[in-house]
Design brief:
- Belongs to the CotF family.
- The protein is an all-alpha fold.
- It has helices at about 10-30, 40-65, 110-130, 135-165, 175-180, 210-220, 235-240, 240-250, 255-265, 270-290.
- Among the domains are: about 10-80 and about 105-165, Up-down Bundle (Ferritin); about 255-285, no CATH class.
- The longest helix has 28 residues, at about 135-165.
- It starts with 8 loop residues before the first helix and ends in a 10-residue tail after the last helix.
């Protein structure tokens, strides 16, 4: 029974490329296989092609949802390979490289080189596709496929190095040391003490304005602690008209706090007395300034 997976658009396109490249790789190896002469290379080609066929079927089953295909790791045919000596022999490498004029000129070096290129391309394509995969199983499948291609490429390179087919260039030891020795391990520094005039940041108030606003909406509101009453301010000089400020600019400002303290000491009700004081002052101001209502209609 087929079970469909939810695939993203990029994921579908990348899977299409990976599967198409896998088909091309198998077809190319089949074209090259009849030209193999060396017995070791023939066994290597057969071993890798069998694995690639099984891997392709597993990918198709996984993508189409037919079953959970296994992403098995690649096992080289020869577990113990001769390590690279580090001293390449230029005499073993061909002096010239040029395309063949006829298919009959294809030799073991051509087959191994083509096989190496197939695996390098497969590793890059599958790794790139895994970055676009949204389904966890498909992502792991592509990552394992990229690793498999890398192992197969390394196996082919080892064969080519032993046979003298891969002209590996090596820097002199002094040059390699000059380029790589400056890189040293990262040493974790000890935390330095902060200057006395620098206060540590409050973690609860960290983040930008958006983070603080979001935190303010998420956290419950905490009532602020009562603070001392501020000193009274005569707001008439701030909010009154310019004419009023010119007339009363040099007049002394009543200290309402002192009046309140005196009333409280005398045992009187501050609110009522203050209201009476304000009304008397307003009445005196009306006697000095004629009412503007008298001019209405004239």
């Amino acid at each position: 029974m087929m079970h469909s997976h939810p695939h993203g658009a990029h994921e579908v396109m990348e899977l299409h490329e990976v599967l198409n490249c896998a088909v091309d790789a198998l077809n190319t190896i089949q074209l090259y296989a009849p030209y193999v002469v060396d017995h070791e290379l023939a066994q290597l080609v057969h071993h890798q092609m069998t694995f690639m066929q099984n891997e392709y079927n597993s990918m198709v089953h996984t993508v189409q949802g037919v079953g959970a295909g296994e992403s098995l790791p690649y096992r080289p045919k020869r577990q113990m390979q001769a390590p690279f000596s580090g001293m390449p022999n230029p005499a073993a490498y061909p002096m010239q490289q040029q395309p063949n004029l006829h298919p009959a000129e294809v030799n073991d070096a051509d087959v191994a080189s083509a096989l190496l290129g197939i695996h390098k391309t497969g590793a890059k394509g599958k790794l790139h596709a895994s970055l676009e995969a949204t389904h966890p199983q498909i992502r792991e499948m592509l990552l394992q496929g990229a690793v498999n291609c890398a192992h197969q490429a390394y196996e082919v390179w080892q064969y080519m190095e032993r046979k003298g087919y891969y002209p590996l260039a090596v820097f002199p030891h002094a040059t390699s040391s000059q380029l790589l020795r400056p890189y040293q391990p990262f040493q974790k520094a000890m935390p330095q003490s902060m200057p006395n005039n620098v206060q540590p940041a409050n973690p609860a108030m960290g983040g930008g304005i958006s983070a603080q606003l979001a935190r303010g909406m998420a956290e419950p509101h905490v009532a602020s602690q009562p603070m001392g009453e501020p000193a009274p301010v005569n707001a008439s000089q701030i909010f009154s008209s310019p004419t009023y400020r010119d007339q009363h600019l040099h007049q002394p400002i009543d200290n309402t706090s002192m009046i309140t303290d005196e009333l409280q000491t005398a045992g009187a009700e501050p609110t009522g007395v203050m209201s009476q004081h304000i009304e008397e002052k307003t009445a005196r101001g009306r006697k000095k300034t004629p009412s503007s209502d008298m001019n209405i209609g004239h």
